[in-house]
User: Fold this.
Amino acid sequence: MRAKGPVLNSDTTVTSKAEAPGVVTLFFAFAKMSLMGFGGVMVWARRAIVEQHKWMTAEQFNETFALCHFLPGPNIVNLSVVFGSKFRGIPGAIAAFLGLVLPPVLIVLCLALLYARYGEIEALRRTLAGVVCGTAGLFLATVIKMLQPIVKQRSLVALGVVAAVFAAIGILRLPLPPVLLVAVPASILLVYVMRKRAVP
Amino acid sequence: MNPTNQLYTLAWTFGLMSLFAVGGALSAIPEMHRVAVDVNHWMSDRQFADMVAIAQLSPGPNVLVVTLIGFHVAGVAGGLIATLAMCGPTAAVAYFVSRTMDRSRDAQWPSLIQSALVPVSIGLMGASAMILGLSAGSSWVAGVLVAATALATLLTRLHPLLMLAVGGCLGFAGVI
Assistant:
Protein backbone atom coordinates (compact mmCIF):
# COMPACT_ATOMS: atom_id res chain seq x y z
CA MET A 1 0.00 0.00 0.00
CA ARG A 2 1.17 3.47 -0.80
CA ALA A 3 0.07 4.98 2.47
CA LYS A 4 1.74 8.28 1.77
CA GLY A 5 -1.34 9.85 0.25
CA PRO A 6 -1.28 13.21 -1.43
CA VAL A 7 0.96 14.90 1.12
CA LEU A 8 3.45 16.43 -1.24
CA ASN A 9 5.13 19.78 -1.13
CA SER A 10 3.85 22.59 -3.23
CA ASP A 11 6.61 22.52 -5.84
CA THR A 12 5.11 19.43 -7.49
CA THR A 13 3.39 21.74 -9.94
CA VAL A 14 6.79 22.51 -11.45
CA THR A 15 6.66 19.72 -13.92
CA SER A 16 9.60 19.44 -16.20
CA LYS A 17 13.28 19.03 -15.89
CA ALA A 18 13.18 18.21 -19.58
CA GLU A 19 11.31 20.04 -22.30
CA ALA A 20 7.56 19.37 -22.38
CA PRO A 21 6.81 16.70 -25.00
CA GLY A 22 4.78 17.60 -28.10
CA VAL A 23 1.82 15.68 -29.47
CA VAL A 24 3.85 13.54 -31.88
CA THR A 25 6.44 12.74 -29.20
CA LEU A 26 3.64 11.72 -26.83
CA PHE A 27 2.18 9.35 -29.40
CA PHE A 28 5.46 7.60 -30.12
CA ALA A 29 6.61 7.50 -26.49
CA PHE A 30 3.40 5.75 -25.42
CA ALA A 31 3.45 3.46 -28.47
CA LYS A 32 6.94 2.34 -27.49
CA MET A 33 6.02 1.68 -23.83
CA SER A 34 2.94 -0.19 -24.93
CA LEU A 35 4.75 -2.46 -27.36
CA MET A 36 7.40 -3.33 -24.77
CA GLY A 37 4.79 -4.07 -22.14
CA PHE A 38 4.06 -7.77 -21.99
CA GLY A 39 1.73 -8.50 -19.10
CA GLY A 40 1.43 -4.86 -18.05
CA VAL A 41 2.71 -1.55 -19.33
CA MET A 42 3.05 0.37 -16.06
CA VAL A 43 6.66 -0.66 -15.36
CA TRP A 44 7.72 0.57 -18.78
CA ALA A 45 5.73 3.75 -18.36
CA ARG A 46 7.60 4.58 -15.16
CA ARG A 47 10.94 3.80 -16.77
CA ALA A 48 10.26 5.96 -19.84
CA ILE A 49 8.57 8.91 -18.10
CA VAL A 50 10.74 9.19 -15.00
CA GLU A 51 14.11 7.71 -15.88
CA GLN A 52 14.53 8.05 -19.61
CA HIS A 53 12.78 11.31 -20.56
CA LYS A 54 12.62 12.89 -17.08
CA TRP A 55 9.19 14.32 -17.88
CA MET A 56 8.12 13.78 -14.25
CA THR A 57 9.88 13.27 -10.95
CA ALA A 58 9.33 9.98 -9.15
CA GLU A 59 6.96 11.71 -6.70
CA GLN A 60 4.90 13.25 -9.48
CA PHE A 61 4.68 9.87 -11.16
CA ASN A 62 3.60 8.17 -7.94
CA GLU A 63 0.96 10.78 -7.35
CA THR A 64 -0.41 10.45 -10.89
CA PHE A 65 -0.28 6.67 -10.61
CA ALA A 66 -2.19 6.71 -7.32
CA LEU A 67 -4.89 8.87 -8.89
CA CYS A 68 -5.19 6.59 -11.92
CA HIS A 69 -5.27 3.52 -9.72
CA PHE A 70 -8.22 4.59 -7.66
CA LEU A 71 -10.22 5.79 -10.64
CA PRO A 72 -12.18 3.04 -12.38
CA GLY A 73 -11.01 1.56 -15.65
CA PRO A 74 -7.70 0.39 -17.03
CA ASN A 75 -5.02 2.18 -14.97
CA ILE A 76 -2.52 2.69 -17.75
CA VAL A 77 -5.20 4.11 -20.07
CA ASN A 78 -6.10 6.63 -17.37
CA LEU A 79 -2.43 7.43 -16.91
CA SER A 80 -1.93 8.12 -20.62
CA VAL A 81 -4.86 10.54 -20.65
CA VAL A 82 -3.86 12.37 -17.46
CA PHE A 83 -0.23 12.54 -18.55
CA GLY A 84 -0.96 13.68 -22.10
CA SER A 85 -3.40 16.37 -20.97
CA LYS A 86 -0.93 17.72 -18.43
CA PHE A 87 1.42 18.74 -21.21
CA ARG A 88 -0.75 19.36 -24.27
CA GLY A 89 -4.37 19.52 -23.14
CA ILE A 90 -6.97 17.42 -24.93
CA PRO A 91 -4.89 16.86 -28.10
CA GLY A 92 -2.08 15.57 -25.88
CA ALA A 93 -4.46 13.23 -24.05
CA ILE A 94 -5.72 11.83 -27.37
CA ALA A 95 -2.20 11.43 -28.76
CA ALA A 96 -0.95 9.55 -25.68
CA PHE A 97 -4.08 7.38 -25.59
CA LEU A 98 -3.86 6.48 -29.29
CA GLY A 99 -0.14 5.74 -28.97
CA LEU A 100 -0.86 3.42 -26.08
CA VAL A 101 -3.78 1.58 -27.63
CA LEU A 102 -3.59 1.68 -31.42
CA PRO A 103 -0.43 -0.37 -32.15
CA PRO A 104 -1.28 -3.24 -29.77
CA VAL A 105 -4.92 -3.24 -30.95
CA LEU A 106 -3.68 -3.87 -34.49
CA ILE A 107 -1.55 -6.77 -33.22
CA VAL A 108 -4.41 -8.19 -31.17
CA LEU A 109 -6.78 -7.93 -34.14
CA CYS A 110 -4.33 -10.02 -36.20
CA LEU A 111 -4.20 -12.60 -33.40
CA ALA A 112 -8.00 -12.55 -33.22
CA LEU A 113 -8.16 -13.28 -36.93
CA LEU A 114 -5.75 -16.20 -36.55
CA TYR A 115 -7.72 -17.50 -33.57
CA ALA A 116 -11.00 -17.29 -35.47
CA ARG A 117 -9.49 -19.30 -38.31
CA TYR A 118 -7.31 -21.83 -36.48
CA GLY A 119 -8.67 -21.79 -32.93
CA GLU A 120 -10.35 -25.17 -33.25
CA ILE A 121 -7.21 -27.01 -34.43
CA GLU A 122 -6.42 -29.61 -31.77
CA ALA A 123 -2.73 -28.73 -31.32
CA LEU A 124 -3.50 -25.02 -30.86
CA ARG A 125 -6.30 -25.81 -28.43
CA ARG A 126 -3.92 -27.89 -26.32
CA THR A 127 -1.26 -25.17 -26.42
CA LEU A 128 -3.70 -22.45 -25.40
CA ALA A 129 -5.00 -24.62 -22.56
CA GLY A 130 -1.43 -24.61 -21.22
CA VAL A 131 -1.16 -20.84 -21.60
CA VAL A 132 -4.50 -20.46 -19.77
CA CYS A 133 -3.05 -22.44 -16.83
CA GLY A 134 0.01 -20.16 -16.85
CA THR A 135 -2.18 -17.05 -16.91
CA ALA A 136 -4.32 -18.33 -14.03
CA GLY A 137 -1.09 -18.93 -12.10
CA LEU A 138 0.10 -15.36 -12.76
CA PHE A 139 -3.23 -13.99 -11.54
CA LEU A 140 -3.05 -16.16 -8.43
CA ALA A 141 0.45 -14.86 -7.71
CA THR A 142 -0.78 -11.26 -8.06
CA VAL A 143 -3.58 -11.94 -5.59
CA ILE A 144 -1.16 -13.50 -3.07
CA LYS A 145 1.24 -10.54 -3.43
CA MET A 146 -1.59 -8.04 -2.90
CA LEU A 147 -2.86 -9.98 0.12
CA GLN A 148 0.48 -10.00 1.92
CA PRO A 149 0.35 -6.50 3.47
CA ILE A 150 -3.23 -7.07 4.65
CA VAL A 151 -2.32 -10.40 6.23
CA LYS A 152 0.75 -8.84 7.89
CA GLN A 153 -1.35 -6.06 9.39
CA ARG A 154 -3.88 -8.69 10.60
CA SER A 155 -6.59 -6.43 9.22
CA LEU A 156 -9.62 -8.66 9.68
CA VAL A 157 -11.94 -6.00 8.30
CA ALA A 158 -10.04 -5.79 5.02
CA LEU A 159 -9.85 -9.59 4.80
CA GLY A 160 -13.60 -9.70 5.35
CA VAL A 161 -14.16 -7.31 2.46
CA VAL A 162 -11.85 -9.40 0.23
CA ALA A 163 -13.76 -12.57 1.12
CA ALA A 164 -17.18 -10.98 0.65
CA VAL A 165 -16.34 -9.55 -2.78
CA PHE A 166 -14.72 -12.81 -3.84
CA ALA A 167 -17.78 -14.81 -2.78
CA ALA A 168 -20.26 -12.46 -4.44
CA ILE A 169 -18.42 -12.25 -7.77
CA GLY A 170 -16.46 -15.50 -7.98
CA ILE A 171 -18.83 -17.98 -6.36
CA LEU A 172 -22.33 -16.49 -6.58
CA ARG A 173 -21.46 -14.87 -9.93
CA LEU A 174 -23.50 -11.76 -9.17
CA PRO A 175 -23.36 -8.80 -11.61
CA LEU A 176 -20.54 -6.36 -10.86
CA PRO A 177 -22.38 -2.98 -10.61
CA PRO A 178 -24.75 -3.84 -7.69
CA VAL A 179 -21.95 -5.67 -5.83
CA LEU A 180 -19.71 -2.62 -6.07
CA LEU A 181 -22.50 -0.24 -5.15
CA VAL A 182 -22.75 -2.13 -1.85
CA ALA A 183 -19.11 -3.14 -1.31
CA VAL A 184 -17.38 0.19 -2.04
CA PRO A 185 -19.45 2.41 0.31
CA ALA A 186 -19.31 -0.34 2.98
CA SER A 187 -15.54 -0.58 2.67
CA ILE A 188 -15.13 3.21 2.80
CA LEU A 189 -17.28 3.35 5.92
CA LEU A 190 -15.28 0.54 7.57
CA VAL A 191 -11.93 2.20 6.80
CA TYR A 192 -13.29 5.52 8.09
CA VAL A 193 -14.50 4.00 11.36
CA MET A 194 -11.23 2.09 11.85
CA ARG A 195 -9.21 5.27 11.36
CA LYS A 196 -11.39 7.20 13.80
CA ARG A 197 -10.78 4.48 16.38
CA ALA A 198 -7.05 4.38 15.75
CA VAL A 199 -6.74 8.10 16.52
CA PRO A 200 -8.05 8.57 20.07
CA MET B 1 -29.52 -10.20 -33.72
CA ASN B 2 -28.50 -7.92 -36.59
CA PRO B 3 -24.95 -6.51 -36.80
CA THR B 4 -25.83 -2.92 -35.82
CA ASN B 5 -27.56 -4.19 -32.72
CA GLN B 6 -24.49 -6.24 -31.83
CA LEU B 7 -22.27 -3.15 -32.06
CA TYR B 8 -24.71 -1.20 -29.95
CA THR B 9 -24.79 -3.95 -27.32
CA LEU B 10 -20.97 -4.07 -27.26
CA ALA B 11 -20.75 -0.31 -26.88
CA TRP B 12 -23.08 0.05 -23.94
CA THR B 13 -22.02 -3.19 -22.21
CA PHE B 14 -18.34 -2.26 -22.13
CA GLY B 15 -19.00 1.46 -21.71
CA LEU B 16 -20.90 0.72 -18.50
CA MET B 17 -18.38 -1.89 -17.40
CA SER B 18 -15.48 0.52 -17.75
CA LEU B 19 -16.99 2.75 -15.06
CA PHE B 20 -17.19 -0.21 -12.69
CA ALA B 21 -13.71 -1.62 -13.38
CA VAL B 22 -12.33 -0.92 -9.92
CA GLY B 23 -8.65 -1.84 -9.68
CA GLY B 24 -8.03 -2.08 -13.41
CA ALA B 25 -8.92 -4.26 -16.35
CA LEU B 26 -8.03 -7.63 -14.82
CA SER B 27 -10.53 -7.07 -12.00
CA ALA B 28 -13.27 -6.78 -14.61
CA ILE B 29 -12.63 -10.28 -15.99
CA PRO B 30 -15.38 -11.98 -13.93
CA GLU B 31 -17.88 -9.41 -15.22
CA MET B 32 -16.66 -9.87 -18.80
CA HIS B 33 -17.06 -13.62 -18.36
CA ARG B 34 -20.57 -13.21 -16.98
CA VAL B 35 -21.61 -10.94 -19.84
CA ALA B 36 -19.91 -12.82 -22.69
CA VAL B 37 -20.49 -16.43 -21.60
CA ASP B 38 -23.44 -16.57 -19.20
CA VAL B 39 -25.71 -13.71 -20.28
CA ASN B 40 -25.20 -13.21 -24.01
CA HIS B 41 -23.80 -16.65 -24.92
CA TRP B 42 -21.30 -15.04 -27.27
CA MET B 43 -18.74 -17.76 -26.62
CA SER B 44 -17.90 -20.84 -24.60
CA ASP B 45 -16.04 -20.87 -21.31
CA ARG B 46 -12.95 -22.24 -23.06
CA GLN B 47 -13.00 -19.59 -25.78
CA PHE B 48 -13.22 -16.88 -23.14
CA ALA B 49 -10.23 -18.29 -21.26
CA ASP B 50 -8.31 -18.56 -24.56
CA MET B 51 -8.92 -14.86 -25.22
CA VAL B 52 -7.68 -13.82 -21.79
CA ALA B 53 -4.57 -15.92 -22.42
CA ILE B 54 -4.01 -14.43 -25.89
CA ALA B 55 -4.31 -10.92 -24.43
CA GLN B 56 -1.67 -11.83 -21.85
CA LEU B 57 0.61 -13.15 -24.59
CA SER B 58 0.44 -9.97 -26.63
CA PRO B 59 2.04 -6.62 -25.81
CA GLY B 60 0.03 -3.63 -24.63
CA PRO B 61 -2.42 -2.99 -21.82
CA ASN B 62 -4.31 -5.99 -20.39
CA VAL B 63 -7.59 -4.31 -21.26
CA LEU B 64 -7.18 -5.50 -24.86
CA VAL B 65 -8.99 -8.74 -24.03
CA VAL B 66 -12.11 -6.72 -24.88
CA THR B 67 -10.74 -6.23 -28.40
CA LEU B 68 -10.73 -10.02 -28.80
CA ILE B 69 -14.23 -10.35 -27.37
CA GLY B 70 -15.54 -7.56 -29.62
CA PHE B 71 -13.90 -9.10 -32.67
CA HIS B 72 -15.44 -12.46 -31.89
CA VAL B 73 -18.90 -10.89 -31.70
CA ALA B 74 -18.82 -8.43 -34.60
CA GLY B 75 -15.51 -8.52 -36.50
CA VAL B 76 -13.02 -5.65 -36.75
CA ALA B 77 -15.67 -2.99 -36.07
CA GLY B 78 -16.72 -4.94 -32.98
CA GLY B 79 -13.14 -5.11 -31.73
CA LEU B 80 -12.61 -1.39 -32.17
CA ILE B 81 -15.93 -0.39 -30.62
CA ALA B 82 -15.50 -2.67 -27.61
CA THR B 83 -12.01 -1.22 -27.02
CA LEU B 84 -13.16 2.38 -27.30
CA ALA B 85 -16.17 1.73 -25.07
CA MET B 86 -14.00 0.09 -22.40
CA CYS B 87 -11.46 2.95 -22.43
CA GLY B 88 -13.42 6.07 -23.39
CA PRO B 89 -15.72 6.77 -20.42
CA THR B 90 -13.04 6.23 -17.78
CA ALA B 91 -10.54 8.23 -19.83
CA ALA B 92 -12.98 11.13 -19.76
CA VAL B 93 -13.48 10.72 -16.01
CA ALA B 94 -9.70 10.60 -15.48
CA TYR B 95 -9.28 13.76 -17.51
CA PHE B 96 -11.84 15.76 -15.52
CA VAL B 97 -10.80 14.41 -12.12
CA SER B 98 -7.13 15.18 -12.74
CA ARG B 99 -8.12 18.73 -13.67
CA THR B 100 -10.03 19.25 -10.43
CA MET B 101 -7.42 17.45 -8.30
CA ASP B 102 -4.78 19.88 -9.54
CA ARG B 103 -6.74 22.66 -7.90
CA SER B 104 -7.65 21.03 -4.58
CA ARG B 105 -4.51 19.20 -3.63
CA ASP B 106 -4.73 18.46 0.06
CA ALA B 107 -8.07 16.67 0.18
CA GLN B 108 -8.22 13.79 2.69
CA TRP B 109 -10.61 11.56 0.80
CA PRO B 110 -8.32 10.19 -1.93
CA SER B 111 -6.24 8.23 0.59
CA LEU B 112 -9.39 7.01 2.35
CA ILE B 113 -10.98 5.83 -0.88
CA GLN B 114 -7.75 4.22 -1.96
CA SER B 115 -7.42 2.12 1.19
CA ALA B 116 -11.07 1.17 0.89
CA LEU B 117 -10.70 0.06 -2.73
CA VAL B 118 -7.66 -2.17 -2.19
CA PRO B 119 -9.52 -5.09 -0.56
CA VAL B 120 -12.36 -4.76 -3.09
CA SER B 121 -9.96 -5.08 -6.01
CA ILE B 122 -8.14 -8.01 -4.37
CA GLY B 123 -11.47 -9.83 -4.07
CA LEU B 124 -12.17 -9.14 -7.75
CA MET B 125 -8.70 -10.32 -8.81
CA GLY B 126 -9.21 -13.47 -6.76
CA ALA B 127 -12.46 -14.12 -8.61
CA SER B 128 -10.62 -13.55 -11.93
CA ALA B 129 -7.99 -16.11 -10.98
CA MET B 130 -10.61 -18.64 -9.96
CA ILE B 131 -12.78 -18.25 -13.05
CA LEU B 132 -9.74 -18.65 -15.28
CA GLY B 133 -8.45 -21.56 -13.22
CA LEU B 134 -11.79 -23.34 -13.51
CA SER B 135 -11.85 -23.00 -17.30
CA ALA B 136 -8.26 -24.27 -17.46
CA GLY B 137 -9.72 -27.72 -16.89
CA SER B 138 -10.43 -30.01 -14.01
CA SER B 139 -7.44 -32.33 -14.45
CA TRP B 140 -4.97 -32.47 -11.58
CA VAL B 141 -2.13 -31.68 -13.99
CA ALA B 142 -3.79 -28.36 -14.84
CA GLY B 143 -4.11 -27.59 -11.13
CA VAL B 144 -0.45 -28.39 -10.53
CA LEU B 145 0.60 -26.18 -13.45
CA VAL B 146 -1.47 -23.25 -12.10
CA ALA B 147 0.08 -23.65 -8.65
CA ALA B 148 3.60 -24.10 -10.06
CA THR B 149 3.30 -20.93 -12.15
CA ALA B 150 2.07 -18.96 -9.14
CA LEU B 151 4.95 -20.27 -6.99
CA ALA B 152 7.54 -19.55 -9.68
CA THR B 153 6.21 -15.99 -10.02
CA LEU B 154 6.39 -15.40 -6.28
CA LEU B 155 9.76 -17.03 -5.65
CA THR B 156 11.80 -16.28 -8.77
CA ARG B 157 12.36 -13.33 -11.07
CA LEU B 158 11.55 -15.22 -14.25
CA HIS B 159 9.77 -13.21 -16.93
CA PRO B 160 6.00 -13.85 -16.97
CA LEU B 161 6.12 -14.40 -20.72
CA LEU B 162 8.57 -17.26 -20.19
CA MET B 163 6.12 -18.96 -17.84
CA LEU B 164 3.28 -18.62 -20.32
CA ALA B 165 5.57 -20.13 -22.93
CA VAL B 166 6.37 -23.09 -20.67
CA GLY B 167 2.64 -23.61 -20.11
CA GLY B 168 2.05 -23.47 -23.86
CA CYS B 169 4.78 -26.02 -24.56
CA LEU B 170 3.44 -28.42 -21.93
CA GLY B 171 -0.01 -28.01 -23.43
CA PHE B 172 1.27 -28.63 -26.94
CA ALA B 173 3.09 -31.75 -25.74
CA GLY B 174 -0.28 -33.02 -24.50
CA VAL B 175 0.63 -33.10 -20.81
CA ILE B 176 -2.51 -31.29 -19.67
